[in-house]
Amino acid sequence: MKLLKIKTGIAILVILFLSIGHGYAQHHVGEVGKGPHGGTVQEADPNHAEILVKEGKVYIYILNGDAKAMNNTGVTGKALFQFEDGTTISETLVTNGTDGFVVGNAKATGYKNCIVTATVNGKSISSKFKNYITAKPSVVTHHH
Q1: Given CA atoms 69, 72, 76, 77 in this order, what sign does their dihedral have?
Q2: Contact criterion met (CB below 8 Å) for 30 and 130
Q3: What is the pTM of this model?
Q4: Lowest mean pLDDT among 24-28, 51-55, 114-118, 125-129
Q5: Which domain does 91 fall in, by range?
Q6: Which residues on neighbouring strands pair with residue 100, listed in sequence order?
Q7: What total of structural domains would you count in the chain?
Q8: Which of 44, 45, 69, 113 is most open to solvent, judged by the fewest CB atoms within 10 Å of its CB?
């Protein structure tokens, strides 16, 4: 009987640790300003992507599966920006530093939605972002 209680206790601890780890990895997805570069992170299975509007430019980062910065060597991509008036612009991602990309088109900062597509290690990923800077605060959601 004592052995059964020990096994049950160990099983509960394992489940608890696994659920805490999973919750932590998902904690900042969709939260404005919580990405490793100060931007918003979204899923881009199996990776993540981060977008940051700063100093009149849009910065995009392809993150690893744990939403941590990763090297941009060999990563290529595009960003499709959709605007309130129904217009769109497509921009090729230009490398910026060792882990990011930049879009220099100043119009891009006023996007309504942005769809990022990239090729990472030969695999295509994509992610969609809303521009919370131009959106009403009520649309900001927090996923925990």
Answers
A1: positive
A2: no
A3: 0.74
A4: 24-28
A5: 2-135
A6: 96
A7: 1
A8: 45
